[in-house]
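Input.
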Amino acid sequence: MDRSYDVVNGKWRDLRAICTKFNDIFENLKNMHKSGSNDFNVLSTACYQFKVTNNGKPFGHQKAWEVCRQGPKWVLNLETLHSDSTTGSNKRARTYESDTGFGLDLNDDVDVAEGDGPPEVQLRRPPGRDKAKRAASSSGKATATSDDGLVESIDKTLRFNFQYFKAENINRLDPAHPFNDDNDDDDLYVTMMYQYYMDNVLQPDPAPLLTRCAALNRDREEGHRRLVNDYFTENCVYQPSDFKRRCRLRKNVFQRIANAMEARYEFFQMRYDARGKRGFTGLQKCVAAIKFMAMGESPDSVDDYMRMSERTARESLYLLARGVVETFGDQYLRKPSLHDMQQLYAAHEERHGFPGMLGSIDCTHWKWRNCPVAWKGQYSSGHHGAPSLVLEVIASQDLWIWHAFFGVAGSNNDVNVLDQSPIFDDLLSGKAPDAPFTVNGNEYKFGYYLTDGIYPQYSTFVKAFRHPIDPRDKYFKRRQEGARKDVERAFGVLKSKWHIVEHAARPYELDTLRYIMYACIIMHNMVVEDKGRNIATYSPTEPRHVQFQPGTSEYLHRVVDIQDQRKHKQLREDLANYIYVGHEDEDEDE
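Output.
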């Protein structure tokens, strides 16, 4: 490649024009002061606008622009000094000119005191074209951009620097140097002067606008081998009980989840990057994500053991939570079928004495640590004091969670959450089967849930007597409150097993928080099934279609039946009489 002065200088002129055009676009965008924008966003937008205004040609000189945009806009024309030094003119009496028009004779002597160094060169930008013309017209002189004081200062400084170098470096002259054969040392001094100017006067190169963190060799293969040797080999270091204590799941349940994620999602498959380097295995990503959910730790906590960066660990958590919901949600967050309802009726009547009981309903809060500032008033309440999200749950006696509705702002109470909940949608539309039951000689069409005092008087809710007086009412109140503790126990087990729900939530997106919460509930139900405590067993059935459209007469009749207060009171009276039979003496003894 030809690197002569003319070729390089021509290339520099073209490059300077392109960089100047791009810098104008960048500075205009930067001065707009858009909220939330940074240099990276401004740079991306500037590249797009440059491509549009440049006939579709992209900007490909980012490195040169990063260096030039921070440099001085006006410097001495030392290229002229360098080019003239190689010509064959009289070098002894030659005078070099700069962009300012002043002259410098290399043979001028400037006194240099011993121990003195070259002074600082204070370069001031020359006046612009319009200002110079106005100054020339007012003074009657035909000068363009000269400034006598500035020229004299720079001329004196450069002559002083030249003599300083001549005095300091006289011993460095090599007699064998080709410039010294004809007793000509001006070229050598010019080169030394140019080097001094480049090293000491010009500003150093600025740091690049876009920087990247240093890549760490974490040795992912070693992290995989260590994990396998610790838990997943025949003679592993730790026992299965240790794995269950740290991941809250037995190995068979965990491997079921890991195999499903690896078979369904590309992210959990072991891949190679563009350099041919092996990535993380699905086993590493699944263990890291489940440990975060179980222990509530920071994503950076597995870097030393798993050899996994914080970003990869966080992505593993989010994608595993979403994958668990999409893969296992139909089975472990299903609505109870007719067969499930009959099993729940029998189990609750046997253990609590409440016929027709489906479970207990209540709400809990999950604090939101990184709630946006603009939303804090909406998601905060005086009861909790911090932003939170509400979770509505229906749990049976075996702690199986049949219904979960999450994401309502923490400023809402249980009634407000119930108004937004889809708990009765399937019942109103006819998708949920009717499971009638009989108590105290009266037949009821729908099953019911035990609630506390804040819930409305629906025919599907059973509340305790607020101020019981009769022995029967007092006994019913104790039995109802004792049976309603099933949902409270479910909350306690869920938060103690998955500490990520116990601690304040870190993600910013609501969808991510929903996936994490639902994934914890699904794995909670998987643990209940793995222990053999589940009352109802899963049997795939054909999905039922909507029978009643909203607004039709059948749909409105169901709404009236559910919100009938008379049926609510009659059901509570029948249950109180049914439970109190045979326990009269027990209440009198107390």
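Residues 372 and 508 are 8 Å apart (CA to CA).
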